[in-house]
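ok so I'm stuck.
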Amino acid sequence: MRIITKTKTNINQKFKQMKKLFILGLAIVLFTSCQEKKQRYFSSSAEIDHVKSLLEDYHAGDWKAWAGHYADTAKIYHNNIKGANVAETIESLKQILSNTSSYKFDDKDLWYEMIIDDDNEHGLTFGEIGEVNWLLTVKN
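replied:
not stuck anymore, here's the structure
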């Protein structure tokens, strides 16, 4: 009779251990499945508002304010693969716009997006559905 009692006790202990492991596993599954996933795509953000402000300064020809959006060590890749510093980019843009009396993007269909990649790097781009249209007046 003693053997049967020990066996029942061992079975009850094993059952309690299995029950604890099951509850622990269930808690881990519930905890990990309830975690909020980080947003990686944005159509509005502080960074996008910053770019909109940068474009406003560009359209106004306020090059001092435009340059203020960049760090002194910034490399700007404006439609090229060779980076330029802020002063070089301003001169390049001034030369491009030298034959115009007014210029701006047709912002009717403009879109902005920011993406955060796997390395937590932020990428921001903007464009227009189809192609970017300029509204500009050529100097006489």
